[in-house]
Amino acid sequence: MKNIYFLGECMVELRAMSEATLHQSFAGDVYNSAVYLKRSFAQISTSVVTALGQDNLSKKMLERFESEQLDTQFVFAHDTKVPGMYYIETDEHGERSFIYWRSDAAAKKVVDFLTPELVEQLSQGDMFFFSGISLAVIEEGARERFWQIVTQLKNAGVKIVFDPNYRARLWKNTEETKAQYHLAFSVADITLPGVEDLTTLYNVHNVDAVIEYLQKYKIEEIVVKNGPASVVTKHDNTLQSHTIIPVKNVVDTASAGDAFNGVYLGARLSGCTIENAVQLAAKAAGAVIQQPGAIVPKDIFQLAMAEAAI
Fold first, then answer.
1. Distances from the Cα of 220 to the Cα of 158, 238, 276, angstroms
2. Do residues 114 and 149 make contact, with C-beta atoms less than 8 angstroms apart?
3. Structure confidence by residue, pLDDT tens digits, 142-173
4. Residue 299: how many CB atoms within 10 A of its CB?
5. Which of 85, 147, 208, 224 keeps 20 to 30 A from 54, CA to CA?
6. pLDDT of residue 263
7. Is residue 309 pLDDT above 90, yes or no?
8. pTM of the model
9. 66 within 8 A of 21, measured Cβ to Cβ
10. Residue 296 carries which DSSP code?
11. What is the pLDDT of residue 255?
C-alpha cells in the first residue's frame, strides 16, 4: 500500500450562516488535501502529522479525521495547547476573508513530538507533504530540527512535496519567508506553487517566470497552478501546458488549491500520468469551489469525481 504523510495544522472553522448563526467545522490546507486525496484514492494510506489539545474541540477534530479514514497515528495531544481557530466570510464572487486565532495553537509544537523512533517510521513512507503555512506555524526554534527530519526522510527515499501557499501575516517579514522557502525548494522532489503565492516574494508574475525562477533548484516535478487558467507542469525537462475548463458557478474558492494538491498527489501515487493527474485534480478543485466551506459534503464530491472516472 502506498502512503503519504501531511504535516501541518488543522483549525476550527467558523462560518457565518446568518447574522446570529455560525457553522462550526474543521479545515486547514494540509488537512483539506489529505481529505480529498483519501476520498478519491481509498487505497492510499493517508496520514495527518499534527498536534491538537486535550479539549473537547480537539477530540471532535480527531473524530473527524477518523471519519474521513485518515490515519491518526501521528496526531499528538498537547497538555496545555488548543487548536487554532478562524472565522471566514465570502463575498458574492466566492472570494474569502479571514480572522484568525492561533497564538496558542498546539500545531506549533508538532516537531517536539517527532522522536527519532517516529521519524524512522516516517522514513518508510512514499511521500511527505508540507506547505508554506506548515512552515510558518512551526515555532522558529523548532525549524532546524524540522529540516533535519525532512533531510533524513529524503535520504531514505521519501519524496518530499512542498506547496508554497504563502500567507504574509504568518511571517515576520519576507526575508524570513524566502530563507525558509529556499530550504524547502532545495529539498523538494515535487512542488505545487501558485503564481499568486510567488508574485509578492519573488516578483514573478506569470507561469513562465515561476518555472524560470525554480530552474536553479533540482526539483523533479513542478506543477504551477494559475487560478482558472491553465496548469503548467515540468517533469524531466518536459514542459506541458494543461487546459482547464473554468467553473462558472463559483460559490467559495476556499481549499480549491488544497483539493487540487491532494487529488494530484493521489493520482501520481496511483501511477497516473501527469496529464491525467492534472485533469483529475482540476475536476476536484472545480467541484469544491461550487460548494460553501473548505470540506464539501462527501456525497457531492464523490459524485463529481465519479464523472471524472476515478
1. 13, 11, 18
2. yes
3. 999 999 999 999 999 999 999 999 999 999 99
4. 8
5. 147
6. 97
7. no
8. 0.94
9. no
10. -
11. 80
Q: Which helix (H) or strand (E) holds 94?
A: none
Query: What phi and psi, each to the nearest 5 degrees, are found at residue 11?
Result: -120, 165
Q: Is 92 exposed, middle or buried (0-12, 13-18, 19+ CB in 10 A)?
A: exposed
- How far lies 78's CA from each of 41, 57, 108, 310, in Å? 31, 13, 10, 38
The answer on pLDDT for 110 being more than 70 is: yes
Where does residue 75 fall: left (phi above 0), alpha (psi -120 to 50 degrees), or beta otherwise?
beta
Distances in whole angstroms, Cα of residue 307 to Cα of each of 35, 55, 295: 19, 40, 19
Cell, residue 307 = 464523472
3-state SS class at 3: strand
The answer to whether 160 touches 131, Cβ cutoff 8 Å, is: no
- Decide the pairing of beta strands 231-235 and 238-242: antiparallel
Question: How far, in Å, CA of 200 to CA of 203, rounded?
Answer: 6
Residue 179 cell numbers, joined: 530563507
**Sign of CA pseudo-dihedral 138, 141, 144, 146:** negative
Q: Quickly count: other Cβ atoms within 10 Å of residue 227's Cβ.
A: 14
The pLDDT score that the predictor gives to residue 302 is 87
pLDDT digits (tens, 9 = 90+) for 192-214: 999 988 998 999 999 999 999 99
> Pick the catalytic residue: 126, 208, 258, 299?
258
Residue type, 224: V
Residue 183: in which H helix or E strand, if any? helix 174-187
Residue 310 has pLDDT above 60, yes or no: no
Buried b (16+ CB within 10 A) or exposed e, 32-51: bbbbbbbbbbeebbbbbbbb
Q: Are 107 and 6 in contact (CB under 8 A)?
A: no
Q: Tell me if residue 112 is catalytic.
A: no
Ramachandran bin of 165, using left for φ above 0, alpha for ψ from -120 to 50, beta for the remaining angles = left
C-alpha to C-alpha distance for 166 and 136, rounded to whole angstroms: 9
